[in-house]
Write a structure and sequence with these properties.
The protein is an alpha+beta fold and 262 residues long. The chain is built from 6 helices and 13 strands. It has one domain: outer membrane lipoprotein receptor (LolB), chain A. InterPro entries: DUF4412.
Length: 262
């Protein structure tokens, strides 16, 4: 039973990563915190007219002034279509078991791509090394947020230079048609068509910071948002992981022992 519990925790990693990529406060709820989950697909509105690009990004989560999670990703956006690519072993988090990432690598699940397609209301979690992917319905709230119209108000906070880019630092308040507000601090690069090279979202003592680099404006290749051919399809990341573990055990393979549960 303890082993199954640990396996289920690992199976949540893809969802956690996809959520982090959106700087969603859902992440905190998954990690045992209790903020709202409203800043997920709504966050995409912060890109404004810059909704076609590729970049590298580093996401960090801080709690009470201490960084608890950092994660580098490759990011692509084409309209409302989003893709992230990540090496799971590069995630550093005090909220996950110490050997979780090493175990993912041992299972061939360390390289992961996530594609979110609001038009189809689907999320695809792809593991190139396993030639397998999971197709999952998007969270209903994410689908709703992706189609909402927001009133966006900006308040100038000053000018700063980030990675050599002159930026206008703005407080951004987004209000939906029900009057619900979301706030963020955004650094818009004036030499990159006001691209938001950095975003910060606060929730109580928690801070999510997204820092974008190597930004290439322009529509990414369409195949970035398609599942490669020749891959086995699963209905969830959990099902994919269970199938992979069963396969390895049947072949006499194994994994490092999971940490003891208290």
């Amino acid at each position: 039973m303890k082993y199954i519990t640990f396996t289920n925790k690992l199976a949540l990693l893809p969802a956690l990563v996809a959520t982090l990529a959106l700087a969603s406060t859902t992440t905190y709820a998954q990690m045992g915190h209790s903020p709202s989950k409203s800043m997920n697909m709504a966050m995409m509105k912060l890109f404004g007219d810059n909704n076609n690009f590729t970049s590298k990004a580093e996401i960090s989560i801080s709690k009470a002034g201490k960084t608890s999670t950092t994660m580098p990703i490759n990011f692509a956006l084409a309209g409302d279509k989003m893709r992230t690519d990540i090496d799971m072993t590069q995630i550093k988090s005090t909220d996950m078991p110490a050997n979780a990432m090493a175990m993912m690598k041992q299972m061939g699940m360390d390289q992961m791509s996530t594609i979110m397609l609001p038009e189809k209301k689907m999320t695809y979690i792809i593991y190139p090394s396993l030639k397998a992917y999971a197709e999952q319905p998007m969270d209903k709230d994410d689908v709703i947020d992706a189609t909402k119209n927001y009133k966006i108000e900006k308040t100038a906070l000053g000018k700063e230079t980030i990675d050599g880019h002159p930026t206008q630092k703005n407080k951004v308040v987004m209000t939906d048609d029900k009057g619900q507000k979301q706030e963020a601090t955004v650094w818009n690069a004036t030499d990159l068509k006001d691209f938001p090279v950095q975003m910060q979202m606060n929730e109580d003592s928690n801070v999510v910071l997204m820092h974008y680099k190597d930004i290439k404006l322009g529509k990414p290749d369409a195949n970035k948002f398609e599942v490669p051919t020749g891959m086995t399809k699963y209905s969830s990341a959990q099902q994919l992981m269970q199938a992979e573990m069963t396969k390895r055990m049947g072949n006499g393979g194994g994994f490092g022992a999971p940490p003891a549960q208290k």
